[in-house]
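lol ok so funny story. i was supposed to be doing the assay writeup but got distracted and ended up predicting the structure for this chain instead. priorities right. anyway since i did it might as well share w the group, maybe its usefull for someone
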Amino acid sequence: MAQFVVKLRFDVDQTDRRLEVRPAHREYLAALKADGKLVAAGPFTDQTGALLVYDVADEAELRDILAKDPYTPADVYEIATLAEWQPLFPFS
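and the output, tada:
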């Protein structure tokens, strides 16, 4: 397994659409958390984006997960950063 950090940048012109889709997005994230695929997630307090940490087999699995996120077809974000992460102090 590998951990990846994904930083999303929200499209401010699509805020209303993002808020409309957000309940489905959060339900999807809750399912990923229950399956052990999502380690941590949350928006920045200024609502310009979010940070997510995934625990997946590889980048291909992560990209599949991102493609299935309700935010993706809604086109309300862009990926600012997608990087494999090597935690020095892991989440407990």
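The chain has a mean pLDDT of 96. Residues 15-34 form the longest helix (20 residues).
back to the writeup now i swear
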